[in-house]
UniProtKB/TrEMBL annotation:
Coiled coil: none annotated. Residues 42-169 form the NADPH-dependent reductive aminase-like C-terminal domain. It comes from Mesorhizobium retamae. This is NADPH-dependent reductive aminase-like C-terminal domain-containing protein.
Length: 170
């Protein structure tokens, strides 16, 4: 989870999996390269974690790119808009631990402030405005489809975290 110039720096994260004994024996040396994080005995888990972390990053990037394209449709620059978007996104990141708990428990209806049905309407409105502004809907339209499928399956009163039930491996 680091580009070559990051190696040895404070932001380098290096994932390890496989033999815990080997990791423990060399942890001190590995820490010199970056935050050495052991993720499990299965040798493929470091790669899976890497891809999952990058997936989260690309999801955030997709939201940023869509939002800036939408605001750009009225001639507002991305840097100027980021003054609003950055703090808003930081605040929304604070919601993720609660979503993680709901996903782990399978209980998506607990403490729902704005349910999937309401969120579906909100996202449909965003996509309508997106089309009206001449901006592509490619990044967010699939999410609305998941919202709708989950709501049509009888889960409209639950939280949006329930869409994970449609995309996780069975």
């Amino acid at each position: 989870m680091a580009t070559p110039p990051m190696i040895g720096g404070e932001h380098a994260l290096i994932l390890y999996s496989g033999s815990k004994t080997a990791f423990d024996a060399h942890a001190g040396t590995l820490e010199d390269l970056g935050a050495a994080t052991y993720v499990g005995a299965d040798a493929g888990l470091a790669s899976l974690h890497d891809l999952a972390l990058l997936s989260g990053m690309y999801g955030v990037f997709a939201g940023f790119f869509h939002a800036t394209a939408l605001i750009d449709s009225e001639g507002i620059g991305a840097a100027a808009f980021f003054k609003l978007l950055g703090p808003w996104m930081a605040a929304m990141m604070g919601e993720l631990p609660g979503y993680a708990q709901k996903i782990d428990s399978g209980r998506h209806g607990v403490d729902v402030v704005s349910n999937l049905g309401m969120q579906s309407v909100a996202l449909a409105n965003i996509l309508a405005a997106t089309r009206e502004q001449g901006v592509a809907t490619d990044l967010l339209a699939p999410m609305l489809e998941l919202f709708r499928r989950r709501a049509e399956a009888g889960h409209g009163e639950e939280d949006i975290s329930g869409i994970v039930e449609l995309i996780r491996r069975r």
